[in-house]
Amino acid sequence: MEERIRDLFATMLQIDAAAVNDGTTPAQVDRWDSMQHLILVSGFEEEFGVDVDPEEAVDMYKDFATFKRVVLQKLSAKN
Amino acid sequence: MPKSVFRGVKISGVAGAVPAAKVDNLRDHYFIPEEDRRKIIELTKVAAYRKAPEHVCASDLCQAAAEKLLNGMGKQAADIDAIVFTSMTPDYRVPSTACVLQDRLKCATSTLAYDVNMGCSGYVVGLYNACALISGGGLRRVLLLAGDTQTKLCHREDKNVVFILADAGTATLVEADPSAEPITIELLTDGSRFKNLYVPAGGFRQPSTDKTREIKSQSDGGVRSDDNLFMNGMEIFKFSVTEVVKTLSSFMEAEGLPPASVNSLFLHQANYFMNDKIAKKLKFQGNQVPYTIGFYGNTGSASIPVTMAHHFSTTRAGASHRAVLCGFGVGLSWGVASARLDNLYAPPVVEVS
């Protein structure tokens, strides 16, 4: 699942998935700006059928590790 | 700030005016790839919005709305005791645009007129002023004019703002009515965060110069000068989904207003994704939260009243209508109001060329 999250994340930001790791931050990715972040969150909600709380959407803008953790938590709560 | 309760005051009518000229987000903003444009539209639900031509100011839009409102309600300009104009985009730096509007609307010289320099919280702040003038000042009728032509503040290639921010003007008639149910308003401010949404230059702190007018690519991906509006989108999102939600929630609880008891929640039309998150967090149902962002975009201080005007021109308010209004934005400033909108008069939104 982690790989699927990383691949979708990379595809949506139009970057190489191999370049994405837990320490990847918005400051390191040109396209990961505030607007793209909300597009990312919305895209993951649609893809995985989950609903991200607004505070969680804010937290997810910290780094990829946090982004992934929230998505995994949502999937775990759903199943 | 403690909540203020205004007795003997009612909101009796609201009208909106928008520029006739449309901006199509998919067609017109070719400076970013089409796929990105489509995604932004899907997220914000702003496919198109209205943009005022160079010669049209917020005051012109508010004037058109005021004339429509007064004519429709059978009121005369002489009936107006005060004009409160709330906007970030006045006609002049001096004097207050409200003074200019007193003459243009042919109101009596006995009319009190002043501006309130506020943005997206401006309608609620203006409503507070209007209610106070009636409840505490003994006036009978206040014309609250809320409008912005904020596209004039934006650089045309700043993707952080140019897909959302739009222009509109509105007029609201606030009147004395001893039998009216109280209007309750709470206003809040956090000036420590003002730089998350502001125009750095052009005031007296940093006057406009050739250097401040220089267009640059910015680190946030936007393109603009220091004379243009800057928005830190993530910080504004964070503010909106934390502070605004917290205030709305505590206000409604203190007022004994569970979501089910509220007919309409009129939120400042920031963007659909954000507003939807706020409404869901507060457990409002979709049909309780009117949106006009798909028609008019985010129109600053006009967004709440233009949404009320659009909504009630097609759906009657009816004899019993409880509304909660919430504005939030520049300042940072935010406010919540609870008011009855029973039998509110609302003509169709007019277009101005």
Report what the structure shows.
The complex is a heterodimer of chains A (79) and B (353). Chain A is mostly helical. Chain A has a single domain (2-17, 25-78), classed as Non-ribosomal Peptide Synthetase Peptidyl Carrier Protein, Chain A. Helix content of chain A is 61%, strand content 0%. Chain A starts with a helix and ends with a helix. The mean pLDDT of chain A is 90. Chain B is 29% helix and 25% strand. Chain B is globular. Chain B has one domain (1-353): 3-Layer(aba) Sandwich (Peroxisomal Thiolase, Chain A, domain 1). In chain B, the strands form 5 sheets. Chain B has a 6-stranded mixed sheet with strand order 6-5-7-8-2-17, with helices on both faces. In chain B, strands 1-9-16-15-14 form a 5-stranded mixed sheet, sandwiched between helices. Chain B has a two-stranded antiparallel sheet with strand order 3-4. Chain B is built from 9 helices and 17 strands. Chain B has helices at 25-28, 34-44, 58-73, 97-104, 122-135, 233-254, 272-281, 293-296, 303-314, and strands at 4-6, 9-19, 22-24, 48-50, 82-86, 112-116, 141-149, 167-176, 183-189, 197-198, 216-217, 223-224, 230-231, 264-267, 322-329, 333-340, 350-352. Chain B is of the alpha/beta class and 353 residues long. The longest helix of chain B has 22 residues, at 233-254. The chains are: A mainly alpha (79), B alpha/beta (353). The interface between A and B is medium-sized, with 17 and 23 residues.
